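Dataset card, provenance and construction

Sequences and ligand SMILES were collected as paired inputs. For each pair, a complete structure of the chain with the small molecule in place was predicted and serialized as structure tokens. The example below shows a pair involving pyridoxal-5'-phosphate. Curators did not alter the output after generation; any descriptive sentences attached to a record were derived from the structure itself.
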Amino acid sequence: MPAVSEKGLKMPQSPIRKLVPFAEDAKKRGTKVYHLNIGQPDIKTPKIALEAVKNNDLNVLEYSRSEGSEVYREKIAAYYKKQSIYVNSEEIIVTTGGSEALLFTMGTIADTGDEIIIPEPFYANYNGFATAAGVNIVPVVSKIDDNFALPPISEFEKLITPKTKAILICNPGNPTGYLYSKEEILKLAEIVKKHDLFLIADEVYREFTYDGAEHYSIMQAEGLEEHAIIIDSVSKRYSMCGARIGCIVSKNKQVIDAALKFAQARLSPPTYAQIASEAALDTPQNYFDEVITEYVSRRNTLISELEKIDNVKVAKPKGAFYCIAELPIDDADDFAQWILEKFQLDNETVMVAPAAGFYSTPGIGKNQIRIAYVLKEEDLIKAVAVLKAALKEYTS
Ligand SMILES: Cc1ncc(COP(=O)(O)O)c(C=O)c1O
């Protein structure tokens, strides 16, 4: 039998999706499953975006330009200007989701065996993209006891080698909910300039900041023109995960030229979805105001319910819609599977993402889970009640 590649064997399973068969079995048994495992918001997509697809009169569903339609890129540049990020349409490549933006960026800046430093825990699929690109992730640990703040810069410097190509951050963070301050971004700016590295910021949750805190983009920092690369996406901003539209943004022409060649190889991002995404840019501010208010309530409810459980530690998120909770158990993988297979409370159970897959240091995060607060408050309350009862039975 022909063998699959080493890479194929090494590709990590997504911790967010790997328990799906157990959830499906629970559903087949008639048990309701609360999905706290995945960042699929239940928020409605702006009508304006859905209508644009329904109302267009295309006769041929053509490819678009590889870098994305010009009108769409012009409109994205105008959106960024409102965020005090000054780029033009030539500095943007539209991709098939933020996922493809990450994959193209890794291919663009790193060769096989090169290294990217990432504060962990990080968005688990970075592991998959790095494996696909042959890149080694070098983690720098951020801690739940510090609310997952940026680790000291000296910790980054210790890890820089001739193979280091970039530092990658997610801001606001998935899975931590941490929002980097301007001071933290400026510290990172200094270090990437000093060591001539790229600074990649995954800013797909840019709008999701709470308690009056403002997002500070790496592209607002001065002197980073050649270093900064933003990864972006419409998936969460407009609750359009199924559109599969994202982008790479950089003022570094070499980066854009190289990324464009990856984009040309896959021909074009999806046409209908660009139409929807372009229209979504006209979403009125009150949509975001309502969405943010909703997420703040959900976060507050989730955190206060979790804090009521004995021996559960939780970091309070300042952005995005995830949190990491530390549980009084040894193996969250086993616990998460056990809840789905063996536990129910009033015929309801819960699916969470074991957090070990969000780390690349082996053995860390084994007693942690990631929770996505993408369900309405009453469901969050019920889901945490299930979790609490499950913990009691599991640990007794
Ligand atoms: C931090 C982060 N980056 C990138 C992505 C990829 O998103 P998409 O490919 O849907 O744009 C996600 C999705 O959950 C994410 O959480």
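Derived descriptions for this record:
The domain at 6-44+286-394 is CATH 3.90.1150.10 (Aspartate Aminotransferase, domain 1).
The chain has two domains: 6-44+286-394, 47-280.
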